[in-house]
Amino acid sequence: MSTLLAHLTIWPILLPLVSAAVLLLLGDEHRRLKSLVNVTACLAGVLVAALVVWRADADRLGVYLASNWEAPFGIVLVADRLAALMLLVTSIVGLCAALHAEGAWSRVGVYFHPLFQIQLMGINGAFLTGDLFNLFVFFEVMLAASYGLQLHGSGLPRVRSGLHYLAVNLLASALFLVGLAVLYGVLGTLSMADIAAKLPHVPANDRGLLHAGATILALAFLIKAAVWPLNAWLVPAYTAASAPVAALFAVMTKVGIYTLLRLWTLLFSADGPSSHFGQSFLLHGGLVTIAVGTIGLLTTVRLDRIAAFSIVVSSGTLLAAIGADTPAVMSAALFYIVTATLAASALFLLVELVERIGKSRRQQLTEDDDDDDETAPGEDTNLDDAQLPLVGRAFPVSIALLGLAFMSCTMLVAGLPPLSGFLAKLSLLTAVVDSDATGSADLPAARWVFLALLLVSSLSSIVSFSRAGIKHLWATGRRSAPEVKGAEAAAVTTLLLSCALLTVFAEPVLRYTRATAEQLHAPPSYVDRVLSTTAEPRP
Amino acid sequence: MEAVLACVIGVLGGAGVWLVQRPRTFQVIMGLTLLSYAVNLFIFSVGSLAIDKPPVVRPGVPADLEHYTDPMPQSLVLTAIVISFATTALFLVVLLATRGLSGTDHVDAKEDEP
After folding, report:
1. A128 assigned to some structural domain
2. pLDDT tens readout for residues B23-54
3. Does the distance separating the beta carbons of B101 and A133 come in below 8 Å?
4. Is residue B72 domain-resident?
5. Is A184–B73 a contact, with Cβ atoms under 8 angstroms apart?
6. Phi and psi based region of residue A188 (left: phi greater than 0; alpha: psi -120 to 50; beta: remaining)
């Protein structure tokens, strides 16, 4: 057991990898078994992530030397508080998306389960790695799986937006590589800790090149994080993707945010010649993104587009919070990241269920009002092993359940009491107002704009969600109740329940995020920790 | 040698960026391919260019950059080539699917209005 615990940090990568391999080996005839393996692996992922969080919080788990090679030369995995928190959020979203997919979606195409696990592996790896090139590799693993998942279910809208999504991400990868190469050329290392250690010693005439490299690298992450004007790809790709995939994609934008947060605090938050490089760009880019997302929210009553635009708003909020750069704002932002991710995933899962109202399965296939012509699998293709129609029992309380879930999502995204969205927005607002005290930023005007935009974006989410709620849930007339299966209902409920738990246990979570923000603002301790870890002696 | 390589990377990158912005999917994939060539050459060049210097240590020769070329960019470029090749191949599949489903090779899957 203790040897297993010693390798705990690499479990979140190995577990999905092994599950994906097993799922690939299982043939198409073992559908029940595959579903079982997928959900069990996701459940195990939640347990492992919880264990990682527990160890990281006790400050016991730090650096894992892959293959026992020491830091600047070998590739290290670092599970500090931030990485552990992101792992836990990802695993919860992964579990719920996997559950929801068992309703119907996992059967509309091939290789859903292995791709799902590989995507989880890529995301987990990106959170854990302490090496820039390894980060690139995990990004590509994540993206390669996401290309397949985005196309899952096929149909022209998916393929068309998939083409754009692929082209944009290939360009982003090219930028990533160029930025990485410039940083290597200037610093001669790719280990994040080593880069942070060598950064203050870069001669003045190389600084321009260093900043150019860092900017190009940041561009790749900004594309991933969907910052205006680099976010035109997001709304079509996310709305075209099938429900469980879109829910998982909600985490992917957070990977971009996470990387920016990690690298920016590590490289540029300390005092020195490059101190606070690019800070005002992050802040202003974030503000503009919130504004664009808010306008987008008001322009549509389609639920899937509302969900996609609320992702844009949350990305902007987080980016502006990184740019504001005080431990208090960052701690509130970390609480917000958890709430916003869970709420956005729940919303994406919910959207598809709400759109079923008043439509039988066959109608959904033949006469769809939107340009999605295959939002759900057809009745004929959909027989399970026992040859029972997959339509399932009609959930007698399905409308009530959907209505309550939709209201909870509205409260979470808009930040209304009593759910955790309110606590996140409130602590963010308080931290932004209070940041005069610490006085790190000389941008008071931007801070007031941030405050105003936070409130305006909340208001417009309420307007937008109410409009959509009336159209899709309230004014449904005599349309028949939707068919919601147990697994799908359980997935949405679990996500919303975790938000409710987050509200009840806000105190310990906020304590954790505060400790995380302090850890992020002390890059030397991270560097020391990574570089001083020595290899295990040979047995 | 540096000037020649810089020109090559510049021409490849410029042509790639231009092609990526064209409306036909085939032009876009050619653009992405050229861009990945440019990026790979660029990564290769950050290890400083040298002739007749191997990246592998030989016995009897001191292991420093006087006698060897930096092996790191070469290994990076190898990984980058493999990954960009695979993703470009995937792009090709999606390109063909779009062509099959929409009957046009326009990137938006519909022709511009005349």
Report:
1. no
2. 888 999 999 999 999 999 999 888 778 777 87
3. no
4. yes
5. yes
6. left
